[in-house]
Amino acid sequence: MKRIVVVTAMAGLGLAGLGTASAQAAAGPSGRGGFDPAAAKWHACPADFVKQVHDLYDVLYPVSKIVQCAELQVPLDYAKPKGKKITLQLTRTPHTGKGPAKGDIVVNPGGPGGAGAIFGPRVFAQNSAPMREAFNVIGFDPRGVGRSVPALSCDPNYTNAPRPDYGTGDPKSVATWLKKSQGYADACKKADKIGLLNHIKTIDSVNDVESIRKALGSKKLDYYGASYGTYLGSTYATVYPKKVGRIVLDGNVGPSDVWYDANLNQDIAFDQNIDYYLGWIAKYDSVYHLGTKQAEVRKFFYDLRAKLKTKPVIYKDPSSGDTVAVGPDELTDVIQNAAYRRSQAVWHSYAHALSALKAGDEATFALTFGAQTTGGADDNGYAVYSAVQCTDVQWPLSWKKWQRDNDKINKKHPFLTWSNAWYNAPCLFWPAKAGKPVNVGHTKDLPKNILMFQSTADAATPYAGALELHRRLKDSRLVVQDGDRTHCIVHRGSAAVDAYFDAYFLKGERPKEDTVHVPQLGDPTPPAQGSAKSLSGAGALRNDVIR
What we know:
Mean pLDDT: 92
Shape: globular
């Protein structure tokens, strides 16, 4: 997934056949000579983690009071189960009902590179009371991520603002960003002290999930995956089909697009969604004063992006002493959040900040869209995103192909195209060998109880990919939110969607129809006068679905 600030892209050559899935499973936890993990030993979580959970999610439910942690050792290389070990960070938010839990739902937030240990208590807090009473929720930081050991970081200063303009495929920006991208790939090679880059493909995380299932003592894996988590989940169901219990996939990755083509598909979808958002701003011109027509607001935005190329906004925050800057890259990266989902807080915050700049208020604008000019930022998520995507499959190594493909799309869809290209360009120089992805859905034992959720105007994982996955996962059921522009729709405000989610886990019930449709939610409206006006302190790296 192309990843963004605050909340959080993907191409593919030919997929591997059934033999690949079988061979990789045999090297994993449940194969001959495989790895048998120790049982998870739960204990109190570190104080800083508990505080983070409290600050983020206790408004929904007091999860910080009950969340538990465990560390799970797994092989760096599952082909060498007795070799070097790495550690995964797990969390358990235990059920609130009396008696044994109905099960353990293992959850993944996407990315790749999304921290999942903290995603567990979030899902639990968002669950309905009957779900909280019945199920434990298990989160985990995938290998290389977050509190797992080692955690990969390559160049924390990579996103210091303002960064070089993404450009339009022009020779100057191409030369600048190719050099910058190669530098990041080289930094990742230098940072990798144990050979993690060679063992961080999706199939490695699939084997890790199997290790987690065994460490939990669960006969079957119950699973909820969002965004990239759907690719992880559908691959697990292909490699370990007989170990699948109940599995929900939300915001679905099309397997044929892994990973190069998926980025190109996203460029079109995000462009459409950002244009829709700019039209929404025009609808409320009485609030934002940026134009009464979508074309007027769109012109303001693209004119601003061009102006920031030569004259970025730089602001020193008197409260923190930090200096932040907004160039065209920072503006694009942050406002991309508005194309991920309908949200009053996000939509209003960005519109208000644009309006504030027009009125001469650079502080509000900079604190909403800016990134620090020095000091660096946590690049762990981006480092792992790159490591997984660049080695899951061989990306095209011809720059002429990248240039040709992106030039073609940029002519009609200029919002994200070159941003997305440069976000993934380290794959041109990646220092670890690429593999071949599992042929998702191709196994004679494919589970026949999978439930999928998707909105039709999802930009991060476009609808066509979900339909392809639905066809591959024979006998799956698909719940579609028509017309909605939200990426991942469970726990996003639709009672109809959440009712299907609950019925599946609590009763084992799926829709009788192959595909069912639920209505989209209405667009947000600006908050009442005097409400919070903007979100500040936006991060420097996009981070795909921390939802």
